[in-house]
Amino acid sequence: MYYIDTSAAVKLFTNETESASMREFFCQNQSESFSSTLLITELVGNLSRLAPSSVAVAHSFLDSLLLVKLTEELLLSAADLMPAGLRTLDSIHLAACMSIDRQSVLVSYDKKFMEVANDHGVETKSPGFD
To answer: Residue 103 pLDDT more than 70?
Structure first.
């Protein structure tokens, strides 16, 4: 399973250096990809600023993706990850990634986030940057 964080999802809808690689990766792994409901707020919010014409397509993308709900248990797990140096939203993403399957791969382009995820035994991937 592949957990798509916001830095990776944004690349699907913008033209950044790794966007083509991320799009190809997602097309090949869509049925094995998931995220959390936090992605709704972060992705739509970022695209509203960066690529407003992509917001409608982003909603369709979000509807097609398995999204882990932010439960109290998940948020408590995220709080336990914060002493590792993660920002609040990244700790929620990591807790959600780890909640489905400890073998899930975190797809991200945030180096600090990926380092902390690796320290917690989570494999990471950055298509086009690996």
So the answer is: yes
Supply angle C-alpha 59, 68, 29, rounded to 5: 70
CA 51 to the chain's CA centroid: 18
Q: Is residue 87 part of a domain?
A: yes
What does each C-alpha distance from 4 to 66, 83, 98 come to in angstroms? 10, 23, 12
Give tens-digit pLDDT for 68-98.
Answer: 999 999 999 999 998 878 899 999 999 999 9
d(CA 121, CA 129): 20
CATH number of the structural domain spanning residue 84: 3.40.50.1010
HSE of 123, CA atoms in CB hemisphere, 13 A: 9
In 3D space, the residue among 42, 38, 44 whose CA is nearest the CA of residue 97 turns out to be: 38
Give domain status of residue 8, yes or no.
yes
**Is residue 80 assigned to a domain?**
yes
Place of tokens 């073998």: 103
**Neighbouring residues of 15: CB distance < 8 A, sequence distance ≥ 6:** none
